[in-house]
Structures are given as C-alpha cells and as structure tokens.
Amino acid sequence: QVQLVESGGGSVQTGGSLRLSCAASGYTSRPNCMGWFRQAPGKEREGVARILTNSGATFYVDSVKGRFTISQDNAKTTVILQMNSLKPEDTAMYYCAATSFPCRLSVQSDWNYWGQGTQVTVSS
Question: What dihedral angle (degrees, nearest 10) is formed by the CA atoms of 9, 10, 11, 17?
C-alpha cells in the first residue's frame, strides 16, 4: 500500500513562495506518476501539476504555469512542488497523489493513492 505524506504548507503573503514535499513509501513498484492537486473552500478539487517518475516529464495546468515547478529527488521517493509568485487564489488544501497509467490531472479517478493534504494560505 502506497503511503503519501505531505509537508511544507503554511501562510504567506501575495508574491511569496512555499515549497511542498510529498514522501512516498510502502510501494513494491514505484508509481509511474505523481502529482499535486488542490481544493479551495467551496470548490472542487483540481489537478495542478504532474510528473512522470521514470522520465521526469512534467505537466502543469495553465493557472500555475511559470509559477509552480514540480520535481523529484534523486532517489525518486519525494516529489517537490515549488510555488512562487503566490496569489490569494492559490489558497487551498494541497494533496499529493500517485498512480500508474493513465494519470490525467483532469481525471481524479485515474489516481489511486492520496495524501492527507497540507494547507496553503495566501493573504493579500
């Protein structure tokens, strides 16, 4: 059973930065994809960024392109989401997720494993 543990959330002002980490464990075969999702109060959860663990290929939704960067450590057991130029609309609970293929950010049922979430709050 894959376990995902997020860390690094917090509160910042507009324009600030935060770095989220997701440590994966408990797997016998490394997930092909890892990603970050977020859910703001009163809104549906949405995909933010995804990385293919073998190739390192990344994908971002338009709202975070150029501001967020997803990466993985050399051991490929931790996924990082570096968030820069944060805006109040980035305020949400951020969740790490992992799965095999397919791993579409727009299809949450593709993703088999989820972390508990970490809160990000951006104040104006």
Answer: -50
Give, as one character, the DSSP assignment of residue 90. G
Three-state SS at 71: strand
Over residues 66-111, the pLDDT tens digits come to: 999 999 988 878 999 999 999 999 999 999 999 998 999 999 999 9
Contacts of 39 (CB under 8 A, 6+ apart): 45, 46, 92, 93, 95, 117
User: pLDDT digit string (tens) for 2-18?
Assistant: 999 999 999 999 999 99
CA distance 73 to 71: 7
Hey, which bits of 26-87 come out as E strands?
A: 33-39, 46-52, 58-60, 68-72, 78-83
User: What is the rounded CA–CA span in Å between residue 46 and residue 108?
Assistant: 8
3-state secondary structure of 55: coil
What's 14's DSSP letter?
A: T
Q: How confident is the model at residue 31 (pLDDT cuts 50, 70, 90)?
A: very high
- Measured from the Cβ of residue 16, the count of other Cβ atoms closer than 10 Å reads 15
